[in-house]
Amino acid sequence: MNNQALLQARYSGFCNTALLWQGDAIRQLQQLDIHDYQATFLRKLERPLRLGQLAERFVFNQLDALKDFEILAENLQIQDQKRTVGELDALLLKGSQPIHLEMVYKFYLYDATLGLTETQKWIGPNRRDSLEEKLDKLQKQQLPLLHSEFCRPILEKLNLKPTQFQQKVLFKAQLFVPYQNESGFDSLNPGCVKGFYLYPNQLREFTDSKFHIPPKMDWFLEPDTFVDWQTFESFKKNSNSFLEQQKSPMFWIKKPNGELLKAFLVWW
After folding, report:
1. Looking at the Swiss-Prot or TrEMBL record, what is one Pfam family this protein matches (predicted)?
2. Is pLDDT of 141 > 80?
3. Helical (H) or strand (E) element with 190
């Protein structure tokens, strides 16, 4: 797959990822649901990007094709003199309505031992971040930034006031549940479940399967047959290098019957 085809595949994977919740079901954070978006990624990438940054470019590409949206500003750095105090992901105009949009694309694993609420039980693959922490950051830092004194000069140039804005999020996620363990959903979208996670001792159930460890930028993708597949022993050896660094690799499984699965192997 050439670079442009791979970028297009990643964009398609992003577009096919569902919103983590509908409407304002979580903490009254209103999701921006984009329909009828551009199916082809047309933007030029000036430099290599991290996964989250690329996800933002994908959103802007979707918005570019929508006639009722105008992008006023992208990734707006907010300064206090020479100090950066934060960033506004996007300022938009839908018709005559200004919108401040914050974008999130995450991978979360369900740990029933954590917390009391649904959102407290979803953590990052390496246990270094969580859904609860991200929701707190949105509510306490990222969204309030629009109303800070540091944003006033920028908004004045646009002839707008913070009180005119609707504030929304575009929060997508891929969710992974414990292997052979159903997880219930109250407010989160079960359509976000993309696979499961395994502990190293559970790998023995897949000794007859083939394995592939995609680079992180390919985490957007659905498993594909046309990759380099490893044997069980080879995968076990290669995955150990991740686990020793307390990193949980995403991997694809190709079962003997051809079924393709997406999973994480956790170090914890």
Report:
1. DUF1853
2. yes
3. none
